[in-house]
Amino acid sequence: MQEWIIIASADNNWGIGYKNRLLARVPEDMKSVSEKTKGKVIVMGRKTLESFPSGKPLPDRLNVVLTRDINYSAEGALIVHSIEELMEALRDYQGEIYVFGGGSIYMQLMPYCLRAYITRLQHEFPADTYLPCFDNLNEWELVYSSDWKTSKTGICYKFTEYKRVQNANK
Question: Mean pLDDT over residues 130-139, rounded?
């Protein structure tokens, strides 16, 4: 069975990026993301892939890039051009599928997701890309929140998990 999962980090304003970069690098978050996604499928937009080190897909995962650019190619990544093509490409995959961003990819795939791992950053960064505030979405509930911790880089963060409420009143 497939399970679609959002994975992201967001600041106090639910900002997730600025000028195609993460708002902050939190080594502990990077480690957590790596542990959760190794051996799994990660789905992202073209700009997200291009923001990775050397613009290369992450190792030990199936990297799927959803882009409208029909001429786009990236060695080591599966390229799809629509939600329908994405669903067809992953039709036989059984397991966790992580939605990696950016902003428009999160919004397009959010209806398919049942869980969200959001690392909250206790700071307000300049941002131009945002997630919706999960705390204000009727169809999502907070099911886990760690204590605040301070990263090696001095940023306060906590791990949270949200689950979709199956019978939410809209």
Answer: 97
